[in-house]
Each structure stands twice: as C-alpha cells, then as structure tokens.
Amino acid sequence: MSGSVKITVLGSCSGTEPMPGRHHTSVLLETASSLYWFDAGEGCAHTAHTGGADLLKSRCLFITHPHMDHTGGVPHLVWTFQKLQWVCRQSMKHDFAIFAPSVQQIRNYLSAASPTEFGEEMQKTKVFQVQDGVVYQDENLTVEALHNLHLGEAENGEWHSFSYRIRMVESGTVIVLSGDVRSLEDLQPFLRDGADLLLMETGHHDPLGVCKTLSNGVDDPPETLLFYHHGRKILADPEYYREACQQNYSRKVLIAEDGMSLFL
Ligand SMILES: [Zn+2]
User: Fold this and answer.
1) What are phi and psi of 254, to 5 degrees?
2) Please, what sign has the CA dihedral across residues 206, 216, 148, 123?
3) Residue 220 covered by a domain
4) Could you list which residues have their CB under 5 Å from ion ligand 1?
5) Number of domains in the chain
6) How far apart are CA 40 and CA 51, in angstroms?
7) pTM of the predicted model, to two decimals?
8) Most buried of 95, 137, 154, 238, CB within 10 angstroms?
9) pLDDT by residue for the chain (264 residues), tens digit each?
10) How far does the centroid of ligand 1 lie from the alpha carbon of residue 172, in Å?
C-alpha cells in the first residue's frame, strides 16, 4: 500500500446507548509505516486489531473533543499497545503521542488506569495540547486543527472542540474530519480549499441537508462525502439515506459501517 492511504471507520456511532454492530467514534488512517488515530471511542483497539491493523505501527492519536463517545477507548488503546508489545516480543515502531483539547482528561484517564498491569508504562505516554493550526507533521502527513463551536466559545483563549485537516505529503490527498460541529459553517475555512474526502458527522445534522448545502454552497464540494458519527435519523433507515443522499449530492456519498475502509 505504499503511496496510498487507507482510512477505516473503526466506530461509526455517535454518543448513543450501545448499538448492535456499531461502536462509538474512531477513525484510523494507515500508511505503509504508520497508524494515526482520530478519536478513540470504546472498542477502537479491538476493531483495529481484529481487522488486521498492526497496532505497533501507531504513531499519534488526535482527539476532537473530550466527550465519552470520542475518548472512552483511550486507556484501553494505550494498554493494548503494551499488551501487544509483550505478546509479540516487539517494541512500538514509533514514539506514540496523543494530541487533545483537554490534556488533563487524557492524563486522568491514564492515571486512573494505573493499578492495572502496564499502568506505569501507560502513564509515560506523551500528551500535547491541541490549538488552531498545524499540530503535527512527519514524512507522511501534516495534521491541522481548526476549532469549532460544538462545545461553545473559547474560555481563557482555549477552544474545547476541533476539526482536523490531513494532507498527505506524497500524494497531496486532503482529508477533512469534522469531529462534532455546530454547523457546516464551522468547516468553511477547510472546505473552501477543496478536499478529496470529508468525514462528516450526522449525530447533530440532517444528512440530506448536509448534501444540499455542500452541493449548492461550496464551490468545490468534497470528492467523497463519508457520513459517520451516526445519529438516530440515519440509523433508523441507512438504506433510504444512502439513496436519498446520493440523489442530493453531486459527487460520491458513503454511509459508514464499522470496519469500512477506503483507499485514497
Ligand atoms: Zn460525539
């Protein structure tokens, strides 16, 4: 898969009660050498590992905001890295780091886990504060954060909720990941530059409305629109929405299932 990037929706659900076959929000981006995680809803480590990803290639986790449906899997993910290193008698291939709007929350999650096996190791995980602008770059990609209004305005200059734009170094492929947003307006600074893929949440938005707004209100709508972080509306009848959304969007629309992968 050299030169290409694989995107897998590990968990496609918003913050619902447990749903059959669907877990809370998490997206995995995979290159030949590295794994990058975007949000870590419960079950993300299990879905990625059993789906065939090599978790020892993990490099970063980017959190959009502190809600449970985006962070509940953090301690289990970090614990799984330790377990796999022990089971496989191999080390992580990279230094793993977490980027989060609330560093304290991640530290609390990890320190609450301290009585478990590997507890001490887990707490050595590096955690960095997310702010607007480029938060991370390496030889594969650049990750840029943009605050949104899902959790209201900034307090003391700190925003609580972010969207991300990923740009692949080699191919120039651009992926925008909404996280939870108040409206599509929040994403305008990213969308006006165009994108190959937009992962857009439906937990707080009518999918048909999103299709119409993007088709009519953006000069260059994303090549592929992948709905994720599903709310009750789309979950009530995904088949209906698959067809109706496509009729209302000028480019390609997909409705995420857990474990669904795309190659870009
Ligand atoms: Zn959410």
Assistant:
1) -130, 150
2) positive
3) yes
4) 14-15, 69, 180
5) 1
6) 16
7) 0.97
8) 238
9) 445 899 999 999 999 899 999 999 999 999 999 999 999 999 999 999 999 999 999 999 999 999 999 999 999 999 999 999 999 999 999 999 999 999 999 999 999 999 999 999 999 999 999 999 999 999 999 999 999 999 999 998 899 999 999 999 999 999 999 999 999 999 999 999 999 999 999 999 999 999 999 998 888 999 999 999 999 889 999 999 999 999 999 999 999 999 999 999
10) 28
